[in-house]
């Protein structure tokens, strides 16, 4: 499974650090809340480069401050999904205090499982195989969703996104459902 983790910029309790987005194969990631609006309903996947090269631009937003350089157009554009469903995910973690005491914490969150079509799954597999070690920025229209670090080839056709507190899984799900193939 791909595990996408929040990337803290400060010291956070272990429970916050262990919240994860899961992709089936092994990416560690940071996530962000998005505002889902606008006519451009597509998922765009961009490879994030650490150095400026011809044809790349700096990607810099409040939630993704200067994460690297991306192309003007996504490497993969997904305009059709097979399905989107929600699941309840229970996350357990341990917070270790300075004095050595420990607190066991259980968080229950809503996850969204997004099923890609077979062609998009193959394109994702190829893209991740060719870009191990880089980040992969996923955007819904013009809004960034997350930017996991690619640890290896992703061989799955689905991704699971566990959303942070305060994020409406239902709102994101409604927007993603607009990309489902006609039945």
Walk me through what this model shows.
By secondary structure, the protein is mainly β. The chain has one domain: Gyrase A, domain 2 (2-Layer Sandwich), CATH 3.30.1360.200. 14% of the residues lie in helices and 39% in strands. It contains 3 helices and 11 strands. The protein has helices at residues 14-17, 118-130, 169-177, and strands at 2-5, 20-23, 43-48, 56-59, 68-71, 76-78, 81-96, 102-116, 135-140, 143-146, 158-162. The chain has a 5-stranded antiparallel beta sheet with strand order 1-2-11-8-7. A 4-stranded antiparallel beta sheet has the order 6-3-9-10, covered by helices on one side. A hairpin with an 8-residue loop joins strand 4 (56-59) and strand 5. The radius of gyration is 17 Å and the shape is globular. The two termini are 29 Å apart. Residues 1-39 have low confidence and may be disordered.
Per-chain topology:
Layout: E1 2-5, H1 14-17, E2 20-23, E3 43-48, E4 56-59, E5 68-71, E6 76-78, E7 81-96, E8 102-116, H2 118-130, E9 135-140, E10 143-146, E11 158-162, H3 169-177
Antiparallel strand pairs: 1-2, 2-11, 3-6, 3-9, 4-5, 7-8, 8-11, 9-10
């Amino acid at each position: 499974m791909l595990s996408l983790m929040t990337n803290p910029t400060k010291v956070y309790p272990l429970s916050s650090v262990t919240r994860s987005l899961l992709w089936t194969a092994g990416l560690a990631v940071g996530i962000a809340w998005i505002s889902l609006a606008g006519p451009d309903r597509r998922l765009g996947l961009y490879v994030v480069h650490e150095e400026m090269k011809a044809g790349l631009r700096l990607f810099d937003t409040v939630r993704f401050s200067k994460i690297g350089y991306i192309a003007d157009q996504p490497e993969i554009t997904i305009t059709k999904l097979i399905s989107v469903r929600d699941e309840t995910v229970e996350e357990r973690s341990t917070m270790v205090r300075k004095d050595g005491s420990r607190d066991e914490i259980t968080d229950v969150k809503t996850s969204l499982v997004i099923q890609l079509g077979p062609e998009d799954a193959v394109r994702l597999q190829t893209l991740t195989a060719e870009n191990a070690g880089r980040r992969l920025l996923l955007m819904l229209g013009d809004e960034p969703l997350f930017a996991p670090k690619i640890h290896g080839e992703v061989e799955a056709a689905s991704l699971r996104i566990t959303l942070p507190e305060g994020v409406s899984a239902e709102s994101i799900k409604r927007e993603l459902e607009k990309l489902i193939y006609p039945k």
